[in-house]
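Subgroup meeting minutes
Present: P.N., E.W., G.H.
Scribe: E.W.

1. P.N. recapped why we're keeping a running log of single-chain structure predictions: easier to compare across weeks, and new members can see raw inputs and outputs side by side.
2. G.H. added today's entry (287 aa).
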Amino acid sequence: MSLARKPRADFRAAKPLLVFRAQSAAFMGGAHFWLAQMPYNQARIKSQMAFASDSDDTQKFPPWQATLFGGLRILFRGQPVSAPPFRSQALLSLLLLHPTKHKREQLAGGLFPDSPEDTAKARLSDRLWLLKNHLPEFPLVSTATEICIEEGQVWVDVDEFRLLTRKGDPTSLARAIELYRGDLLPEQDADWLLLERENLYLSYVRALQSLSAQFLKSGDPLQAIPLLEKLYFIEPFDENNLRGLLRAYQAFGQRGASLEQTASLMNVSLRTIQRDINTLEVQGELP
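Output recorded in log:
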């Protein structure tokens, strides 16, 4: 399976559109609420701390689990449950990511910013019906004005990832890295999701950097090397990542591997420069 990532520039290019759509949806009652850095729900963190330290003991988990890294996956008491229809997954994902009560008009305006208000509300009702019909036992609570997921009934991998990265100790960071199975909900391309996805990816990169640095500081390069190799693969042009990897190789007595990695980076850099030159020549921007 290829682990190649899309260029991070894709997010930067989309960001103006993201902000524009969020602002244009303001008449719906603040539909851009999830684009800001929302304070994390402290009650949700506390409700999960009891089982965050022992992920193998399913008795400590809420009955429902949802994983969002690498794609949406729903489980009930450890057993996979078929995913709801795709067009309802954006609503479910938003409710899982932000476990608070949401006004219906906010959800409608945020999920369907290009639709008239009445149409957006009708589409929201349709998605909600699909979720309830496909997952009748799921702890989804809805009233005439609000929609939410019942507190404490669903474990979410993103919640635990955030909690573990905040702790910052080696055991917690290792668990957080294990939880990150891929980009947040890569099958979805909604504008409101871009910032969430990018922030979590950057947290993952920082977790790799922090844990590998702790291993190097404690004199354990063997533990640091796999983490630094992963960092080099996903961020090949970050000099700090390469420098750490070379130090780890040398500390472990692998001078040959250090030289080989340096040569590999030089080849990648030369190919990138040549590609850019060819592009400029085709566009007629070189003298």
